[in-house]
Specification:
By secondary structure, this protein is α/β, with parallel strands linked by helices. The chain is 55% helix and 11% strand. It is built from 8 helices and 5 strands, in the order αβααβααβαααββ. A 5-stranded parallel β-sheet has the order 3-2-1-4-5. Helix 1 crosses helix 3, helix 2 crosses helix 3 and helix 4 runs antiparallel to helix 8. The protein is globular and about 45 Å long. The chain starts with a helix and ends with a strand.
Length: 162
Amino acid sequence: MGCGQTRTLLSSTAGSMHDRILLDTGVLVDYFRARRKSRLKGHQAVQSAIAVALIEGALRSNIDLYISVHTFKELLQYPQSLQEEHRITTYLPRICHFIATTRRIAAVAGYLSRMSAEYRTHHIEDCYIAATAIVRDLPLYTTNPDDFQYVPHPKLRVIKAY
């Protein structure tokens, strides 16, 4: 994938480039899946190749990548192996800035949760990730935009990464 295609991946639907983005868990799952020794096939191979192009293209283009600590927790929740856990804990801090849950993020997450039973019961981590995007004014790049549909918020910019 060339630089022009990477820039297209990193553009919003309005066509403007982002210089800072918040990555959701799915993008990073695909990225780290590409780092496994086992050979990927079909859809997983395609998704992983796109995630690698997206992240490496962003780094080459000096786009700052951020993740919520809740994304980090989700990545470590079900690692495929100790090797993969080591890759995540070692490599992720080199490519992404971690955003801790502040009092303000927790307050916004509380508001979102209060407005949606879905956030309270099934998408608790997504609620915090959405609140992080809102408070830090970052576009949220995700492979699962439906996870963020439960409470529309004017400052939440959800972008389907691929």
